[in-house]
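2024-03-11 09:14:02 INFO worker-7 job=invfold-0412 stage=load source=structure_tokens
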């Protein structure tokens, strides 16, 4: 079996640009700039915005019901994974990468 690796995805939402980057685990992990949001296909931006609106509302709703923060964060992360899968399905045909 191969060694498992972690990767961290970051979204920069500064005023002048919205960017996506990925980094390997560990202190010396390589950071790779992926894209600016405005350079991504419209379908990807639509999915990202849908995720933003839905997940923020869901977070607020669950916290207001008195759920513990770790439980809420886990629930949001699981749903975020589904949105990332949907984005991957949009991007994969363009890059030719398929499983």
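2024-03-11 09:14:09 INFO worker-7 stage=emit residues=99
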């Amino acid at each position: 079996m191969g060694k498992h690796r972690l990767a961290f995805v970051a979204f920069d939402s500064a005023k002048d640009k919205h960017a996506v980057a990925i980094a390997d685990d560990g202190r010396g992990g390589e950071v790779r700039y992926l894209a600016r949001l405005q350079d991504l296909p419209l379908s990807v931006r639509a999915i990202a915005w849908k995720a933003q609106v839905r997940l923020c509302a869901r977070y607020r709703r669950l916290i207001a019901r008195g759920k513990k923060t770790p439980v809420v964060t886990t629930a949001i992360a699981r749903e975020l994974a589904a949105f990332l899968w949907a984005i991957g399905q949009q991007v994969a045909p363009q890059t030719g990468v398929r499983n």
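2024-03-11 09:14:09 INFO worker-7 stage=report msg="The chain has two helices and three strands."
2024-03-11 09:14:10 INFO worker-7 job finished
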